[in-house]
Amino acid sequence: MFRNCQQRLYCGALIPLLVLGIPGSPPAAALMGAFKINNIILGPTIDPEIILRVCAIMVLASFTMFIMGLFTARIFIQILRLPQTLFLPVVMVLTTIGSFSVGGGINDLYLMLGVGCVAYFMNLMKYPIAPLVIGVILGGLFDETFRRSLLLSDGDLSGFINRPTAAILLLLNVALIAGQVPMVRRAFGRLRGR
C-alpha cells in the first residue's frame, strides 16, 4: 500500500517536470538528468508524443512493480541483510559511473563528492536532502537563464526589480530564505505570541 502511494506521488511530480521543466521531487530531478543526457528539452516546447510515452512507461512500470513485488520480495530482503561493508562499495561504484556518464568529465565526479559530503552533514543535522538534489539539477538551468537575462539587459541588475511581478517574486524568495534563519523565526514567534 505504501509503495503504491509513493509511486503515485512520483507520477504527480512528473507533471511540472514535463510541462514546465521543473522537477517536483528528487526522482523527477534524476529523470530530468536522463532527459538531458538524451538531448530532450523539457517544458512548454516538449513533443506531446514524449509525454504519451512517459505515461505509457509509468503504466508498464506499475504493472512490472506488482509482478516483481510478488516474486522477488524475499530475495530483496536477503540482499538488504548483507553487511554494509559489502553493500556500500557497490553503491559507490554505481554512483561514480552514473555521475561520470552524465557529463563525461572529471568535474562531475568532483561535484558528486562535494554534494555527497554536504548531504552527509545535512543528514547529520536533520535537514532534508531533497532541496539540495533539486538545486544541483536546476543550478545549471538557473545559471544559463540568469546569464541570458543579463545579456538582454546589458548587465543591468535593475531589470529584476523594475517589473512588479519580478519584484514580488524576489521579495517572496528573500522572505522564504529569511524565514529559515533562527533569529528571524524567533522574532516572528514573539510577534505571534502578542
Task: Provide a descriptive summary of the structure in words.
The structure is a single chain. The protein contains nine helices and no strands. By secondary structure, it is mainly alpha-helical. Among the domains are: 1-81, no CATH class; 157-194, no CATH class. The longest helix is centred in the first third of the chain and has 33 residues, at 48-80. This is Putative tricarboxylic transport membrane protein. It comes from Pseudorhodobacter antarcticus. Pfam families: TctA. The chain crosses the membrane at residues 50-73, 85-103, 166-184. Keywords: Membrane, Transmembrane, Transmembrane helix.
Report Rg. Answer: 21 Å
| Major pleated sheet | none
- How many E strands? 0
Strand content: under 5%
Question: End-to-end span in angstroms?
Answer: 45 Å
What is the molecular shape?
globular
Mean pLDDT: 81
SSE series: HHHHHHHHH
Given as residue ranges, the uncertain stretches (5+ residues, pLDDT < 50) are none
Percent helix range: over 70%
Number of helical stretches of at least 4 residues: 9
Indicate the structural class. mainly alpha
Provide the fold topology.
Layout: H1 2-20, H2 26-37, H3 48-80, H4 84-103, H5 106-124, H6 130-152, H7 159-162, H8 164-178, H9 182-193
Helix pairs in contact: 1-2, 2-6, 4-5
